[in-house]
Specification:
Elements: H1 2-23, E1 42-62, H2 65-70, E2 76-94, E3 99-123, E4 129-155, E5 158-179, E6 186-189, E7 193-197, E8 201-224, E9 229-240, E10 243-249, E11 257-258, E12 260-265, E13 268-280
Parallel strand pairs: 7-11
Antiparallel strand pairs: 1-2, 1-12, 1-13, 2-3, 3-4, 4-5, 5-8, 6-7, 8-9, 8-10, 9-13, 10-12
C-alpha cells in the first residue's frame, strides 16, 4: 500500500511540473482575419449629374439664283452649355487582380443650349441700305451612349478606366433672318423665286429636330465606399453628326417659289463632366 501511495504522489508531482512548464511557454496570438477584397465583377445601376459645354460654328449657303445675288448671311459661332443628368447601367468582368472589361449604357436629359447672332447690311442701290440680323440656336434635349470600358485596379477599392463607343442624341436647331430696317421693307423677285420683307420683321426662318448619331470617348475614376456602392467621376467627349437647316422666306410674291438658304451647322460636339453613384448587385 505504501508503494502505491508513493507512486501516486510521484505521478501527481510530474503532472504539476508539466502544467507549470506549459504555463511558462509564450502564448501564440491568433492569426488576423483578412479584410474582404472588393471584387468589381457583376451588374450595376446608378445615377449621374453634371454639366456639358461646347462650341458651334454655322455657315450659310444660297439655294437659288435670287439668294446668290442677294447674298447669304455671314458665318457665325457660339457656345453651348447646360446642366445634365440621368441613369446608367452596366456590367464589369474583373478577369485578374488588376484589370477588368466592362460594358455601360447611359441616358441623360440635357439643358445644353446656345445661340449666336451676326449682322449684315444689304445694299439695294436706290432702295438704300437695309440692316439684317441672322440668329442661330441649338439645343441638346437628351443624349445617350453605349460604351466599352477598360479598367485598371491599382487598389482593391479603386478603379481607373478609359471608355468609348456609340453616342446619340436629340438635337434641335432653329434660325431666323430679321430685317432691322425702319422703312417700308423690300420685295425682291428673280427667276422663279421671290421674297418679301417688311421692316422690323422676320424675313426667313427654319428649324429642325432630329436624333443625331456619332461617337464618344473618355475616362474616369470609380471608388468603392462599401461592398455594393461606388462613387464615380467621369469625363466624356461626345461628337454627333452635323445638320443643315433650310431657312425659307416667310412671305413671297404669288406665283413664285419662296427663296431660301441653308444654315450649315458643324458637328454637334460637346464635353461632359459628371459625378455619379453606382450600386453593384
Amino acid at each position: 500500500m505504501r508503494q502505491l501511495v508513493i507512486a501516486a504522489i510521484a505521478a501527481s508531482a510530474a503532472t504539476v511540473t508539466q502544467i507549470a512548464a506549459a504555463a511558462d511557454l509564450p502564448v501564440k496570438a491568433p492569426a488576423p482575419v483578412a479584410a474582404p477584397v472588393h471584387n468589381w465583377t457583376g451588374f450595376y445601376v446608378g445615377a449621374n449629374i453634371g454639366g456639358g459645354w461646347g462650341n458651334r460654328n454655322v455657315d450659310y449657303s444660297p439655294n437659288d439664283p435670287l439668294m446668290v445675288d442677294f447674298g447669304a448671311p455671314p458665318a457665325t459661332s457660339f457656345r453651348t452649355s447646360g446642366v445634365l443628368g440621368g441613369l446608367q447601367l452596366g456590367y464589369n468582368w474583373q478577369f485578374n487582380r488588376n484589370w477588368l472589361l466592362g460594358l455601360e449604357a447611359d441616358f441623360d436629359g440635357s439643358g445644353m443650349d446656345g445661340s449666336g447672332a451676326n449682322s449684315v447690311v444689304a445694299d439695294f442701290g436706290p432702295g438704300g441700305l437695309v440692316p439684317f440680323t441672322q440668329t442661330a440656336n441649338e439645343k441638346i434635349k437628351w443624349f445617350g451612349t453605349a460604351r466599352m470600358r477598360l479598367g485598371y485596379v491599382p487598389r482593391d477599392n479603386l478603379l481607373a478606366y478609359v471608355t468609348g463607343g456609340f453616342a446619340y442624341g436629340r438635337v434641335e436647331h432653329n434660325g431666323i433672318y430679321v430685317d432691322n430696317g425702319i422703312g417700308t421693307g423690300i420685295n425682291l423677285i428673280g427667276p422663279n423665286f421671290s421674297f418679301l420683307c417688311t421692316a422690323a420683321s422676320t424675313c426667313f426662318s427654319g428649324s429642325s429636330s432630329d436624333v443625331a448619331t456619332g461617337w464618344t470617348v473618355g475616362g474616369g475614376l470609380e471608388y468603392a465606399i462599401w461592398q455594393h456602392w461606388t462613387l464615380k467621376a467621369e469625363y466624356l467627349y461626345v461628337s454627333l453628326e452635323g445638320k443643315s437647316v433650310t431657312e425659307t422666306a416667310v412671305s413671297f410674291s404669288p406665283g413664285f417659289t419662296p427663296a431660301s438658304f441653308n444654315a450649315n451647322y458643324n458637328r454637334t460636339s460637346f464635353n461632359v463632366g459628371r459625378v455619379g453613384v453606382n450600386y453593384r448587385f
